[in-house]
Amino acid sequence: MDILRHFWNADTWDGLPRGHAVRYRPLGEERGLRYAGRYVTLGAHGDSYVEYLLKTWLLGCRREAWLRGMYDGAVGGLRRQLLRRSSRSGLTYLAHAKLTGPLKRNIGHRMEHLGCFVPGMLMLGAATDPEGPESKRAQLDRAAARKLAYTCHQMYRRQNTGLAPEAVHFNPKDSTRDWYIEPEDRYYILRPETVESLYYLYYYTRDPLFQDWAWEIFQAIEAHCGTAGGYAPRPDVRHPTQAPRGPMESFFLAETLKYLWLIFQPEDRLLDPAKYIFTTEAHPLPVLGEERCDALGIARGGQDRPRVSTGKYLAGGQHVALEQIRGVLEGGARKRGGNATASAT
C-alpha cells in the first residue's frame, strides 16, 4: 500500500503509468518513487498495476476512494489513448505508446496475449463502479470488454491449431488483413489471460457464448498441447502437425485450468469476483470484512487522498527494519543455545 501511495503524485500520461518500471530516489525533495521509462502499455511489465488499483480498493471494503479514482483515471486514458480498431474487420485491440516528448508519442500496434486480461478487469470495474453498474462509464467499460474479448477469441480461432500466438501486430491502415504474426511470437505457452476474462464475462452476463469460447480453447489445448506427462507449449500455432515441447508453466495449473474449471460450475457455485478477489496468479482472496477494515485503520466514509505513509520502508529505512529483524533472529538463536546463526545481508 505504501508503494501505491507514492504513485498518487507520480507523473502519468492521461492517467496511465509512464514506463515499464519505477525508480526510487532515497534523498532530497524528490525522494520517493517515480515512473521510469517512456513506454505505456498494459502488456508485459505494465499489466498488473492498473488491475491492482481496482482490486486493492475492493479488498479494503471500498473505502480508499483514491485507489478507485486512480483506476478510473487509468481506464479513461486506456479508452482514449490505447484502444484502436483494425481496418479490415473493425477488431478492437490494445495498442501501446512510446513517449518521445512532453506532447509527442509513437503508437505501437503489437497486442500481446498478456493484455487479454483487460476485458475481465473492465467487467469487474464496471460491476463495482461507484457511479452505479448502469452508469455511462460502466456501460463504456462493458462495451470495451466485450470487443476486446472478441479480439482475444479471434486470436485463437483464426489459427490452424485453435491456439493463440504470444502476440499479433495490427496494421490499422491495411484493409486486406487485420494482423500479422512475427516469427518470434508464433508460440503458445498455455497462457491464462483470455480464459480469465471469459470467466468474468460469463459471470456478469451469464451469456453461454463465453462458455462456448472457453470450451473451444480447452479442446484446442487438449488436442495440441497434451503429452504423456502433462501439457507443453506449441512452438508454432499455425502448424498442427508439430509436436508440443517445453516446460509446463505453473500458471497453467494455477490459472488457465482454474478459470476453465470455474466457468463451467453450476451457478450456485460460481465465485463472485467482487467478493473473492483473484490475484494475478488466480489465488482467491476473500474481501476483508468491515470489522477487519476497522482493525486495519481503514477509515469509514472513503478516503479521497492517500493516508500519510510512515515511510518506514520507502524512505530509506530498510536497513533499520533489517537490523531489528536481525536482532530477533540472533536473539532466537541465543535462546536455542547458540547453536544456530542468523544473518541479514
UniProtKB/TrEMBL annotation:
It comes from the Eukaryota. Its cofactor is Ca(2+). InterPro entries: 6hp_glycosidase-like_sf, Glyco_hydro_47, Glycosyl_Hydrolase_47, Seven-hairpin_glycosidases. The keyword Ligase does not apply. Keywords: Calcium, Disulfide bond, Glycosidase, Hydrolase, Metal-binding. GO terms for molecular function: calcium ion binding; mannosyl-oligosaccharide 1,2-alpha-mannosidase activity. Belongs to the glycosyl hydrolase 47 family. This is alpha-1,2-Mannosidase. It comes from Heterosigma akashiwo (Chromophytic alga).
